[in-house]
Amino acid sequence: MKSRLDKFRKILTEFSIDAMLISSPVNRRYLSGFEGTSGILLISRDEAILVTDFRYLEQAADQAGQFEIRRWQDDLYKSLAPIISETGWGKLGFEGRHVVYSTYQEMIEKLPVELVPVGDAVEKQRMQKSKSEIETMRRGAKVLDRAFEFILSYIKPGLPENELALELEIYLLRQGAEERSFRFIVASGERGAMPHGTASNRIMQEGDLVTIDYGAVFEGYATDMTRTLALGKADQKQREIYELVLEAQQEAARAVKPGIKASDLDAVARDIIDRAGYANYFGHGLGHGIGLETHEQPVLNPRSTTILEPGMTVTVEPGVYIKGWGGVRIEDMACVTAAGGEVLTASSRELAVIN
Fold first, then answer.
1. Does the model's pTM come out above 0.90?
2. Burial code of 294-331, b = ≥16 C-beta within 10 A, e = fewer?
3. Using one digit for the tens of pLDDT, what is the confidence trace for 107-155?
4. Using CB atoms within 10 A of its CB, is residue 58 exposed (0-12), middle (13-18) or buried (19+)?
5. CB neighbours of 277 closer than 8 A, spacing ≥ 6?
6. What are 247-272's pLDDT values in tens digits?
7. Exposed, middle or buried, 131 (CB in 10 Å: 0-12/13-18/19+)?
8. Closest CA to 141 of 331, 11, 317
9. Can you list the alpha helix ranges (DSSP code H) found in the chain?
10. Which residues of the chain are modeled with pLDDT < 50?
11. Are 23 and 39 in contact (CB under 8 A)?
């Protein structure tokens, strides 16, 4: 945490502010280690203060060892005012993307300081993971791989999508997950044309392609993987589109490396799908950053100017979605290394046909 704080404090000079107020729960956890649901960080060049309520005082002292713990009473911002006065800060940065207008108005009214909106400084810092963060995500990815073996043993024609999603979530929780990362996508048959087709009560049938997108949180870090399966049989068109998506996904995964622009990485997969005549059926970006949140920076899409750097963790997940027919998506998590890229999820990408 100390190294994170030291790195973060550089933004004080960048934005000409005396201190920064952190209200985002994810950023609060990242900078302090505190996992409680109620708290505010105040960080200056010399001070690191965590203000929380009575319920979390002991937890905060245990988890946020780098921070001075203060208690707020009935009104958060009235409790912050004397702290700001005693430090003599003149300009206080705040997370403009996380503060709603009504809260901003309350801050203006109650805090004796000039407020300066700061963009996504913490999110940008979070993009580059430490070795320990990446190792945590590796462990989580291995659980996803074991869960895929469970899926192969459990899925069958006649099973409702939502039953598979429920059993998969229970399996992951039993494997040590804290919670699911998001509502699982189980989209079979024509529903596969919906990229975010969360599990329904549809009965999966022989001849269906089934897209399964799932993930869970392990030690605070999200995981995410997608595989598409065939039930009973796969016809020629299903196999052709699957092989097209697989080629695009594998080429993009191999292209992950430091120095590549996010939009250029997206283009590796998109160009393959475009040349095959399916440009209009791949309507989302190639992937997204993943870490303390399932979707975080960097974004991999045609508009992103981010240059990938070692320590960034991203998903690589092209897809083809055809209304009235279905869809195919294949997704892995990958880490940018000094030498290139490392794919963290290792489950087979060959089309599994479940009889």
1. yes
2. bebbbbbbeebebebebbbbbbbbbbbbbeebbbbbbb
3. 999 999 999 999 899 999 999 999 999 999 999 999 999 999 999 999 9
4. exposed
5. none
6. 999 999 999 999 999 999 999 999 99
7. exposed
8. 331
9. 2-8, 10-14, 25-32, 57-63, 76-87, 101-110, 121-126, 131-154, 161-174, 236-255, 262-275
10. none
11. no
Q: What is the pLDDT of residue 89?
A: 96
- Distance, in Å, from the CA atom of 175 to the CA atom of 218, rounded to the nearest integer, reads 10
∠ CA 297-255-257, nearest 5°, is 60
Beta carbons of 145 and 346 less than 8 angstroms apart: yes
* Residue at 91: amino acid letter: K
| The pLDDT of residue 2 | 84
- Could you give the domains of the chain? 2-125 (3.40.350.10), 131-354 (3.90.230.10)
The amino acid at 255: A
Q: What is the pLDDT of residue 122?
A: 94
